[in-house]
């Protein structure tokens, strides 16, 4: 990861640039949804391709299995991500209602919670009391402080529908590429499989690089790690298909 120099850091931390960054909505959830969907889509699809090739299936069977799984599994994953994000949102809202009720019914007890929370951070005396007074003077700030400090909840608002759509789109887009060589006429099955493997490998590496870029990790290391994970899943699927072919004998077309 490239380190930012002091001069560039000073520019980034000017008051106007800090205000601009803090005003921006976080994009990490969309990136996470995309990376999750793309990796799973490519790994799942190429694993089916590898298993079917190892079992001796024809290109048509590989295509049917690949695309059927691509849509069904992509939809299933999108629904699962929708439910997960929706559950997170509902939990946040339930906790918000609880804190609003507590502040209404037992405000002094809630003020004491704020006092103890910030006392544990090292504040004391007049400074501590000023913090408590400032926070509890604003009902919204008071509630959000309790959600973050007492419950440990993220206050970022994420859309379950957006998460589901991003996951599905990334799953289908990345998962389609390893199937493309089997659509091309005139290529022998081994050549199609090699071409599919090359495409899958490039996707694994590219997604790993993207993940490293977004989360400030070493790009090459992140790309290679994702590539190795995807390759291991494909090798396992190929081995299973090949062993089943040997066990039951013959070529299935």
TrEMBL record:
Residues spanning the membrane: 34-54, 60-82, 164-187, 193-214, 226-248
Principal localisation: membrane
Keywords per UniProt: Membrane, Transmembrane, Transmembrane helix
Membrane topology: Multi-pass membrane protein
Localization per record: Endomembrane system
Highest taxon above the source species: Bacteria
Name this polypeptide is given: VIT1/CCC1 transporter family protein
Protein's organism: Microbulbifer taiwanensis
């Amino acid at each position: 990861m490239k380190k930012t120099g002091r001069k560039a850091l000073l520019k980034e931390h000017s008051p106007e640039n800090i205000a601009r960054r803090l005003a921006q909505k976080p994009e990490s959830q969309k990136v996470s949804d995309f990376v999750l969907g793309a990796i799973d889509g490519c790994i799942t699809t190429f694993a089916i391709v590898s298993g079917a090739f190892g079992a001796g299936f024809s290109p048509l069977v590989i295509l049917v299995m690949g695309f059927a799984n691509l849509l069904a599994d992509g939809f299933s994953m999108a629904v699962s991500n929708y439910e997960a994000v929706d559950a997170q949102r509902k939990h946040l809202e339930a906790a918000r209602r609880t804190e609003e009720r507590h502040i209404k019914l037992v405000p002094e007890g809630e003020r004491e919670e704020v006092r103890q929370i910030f006392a544990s951070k090292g504040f004391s005396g007049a400074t501590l009391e000023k913090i408590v007074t400032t926070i509890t003077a604003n009902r919204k700030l008071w509630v959000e402080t309790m959600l973050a400090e007492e419950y440990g909840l993220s206050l970022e608002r994420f859309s379950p529908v957006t998460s589901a759509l991003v996951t599905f789109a990334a799953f289908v887009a990345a998962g389609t590429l390893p199937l493309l060589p089997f659509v091309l006429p005139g290529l022998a099955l081994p050549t199609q499989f090699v071409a599919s493997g090359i495409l899958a490998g490039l996707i694994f590496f590219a997604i790993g690089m993207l993940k490293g870029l977004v989360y400030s990790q070493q790009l090459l290391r992140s790309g290679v790690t994702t590539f190795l994970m995807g390759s291991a899943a494909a090798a396992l699927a190929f081995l299973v298909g090949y062993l089943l072919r040997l066990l039951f004998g013959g070529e299935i077309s």
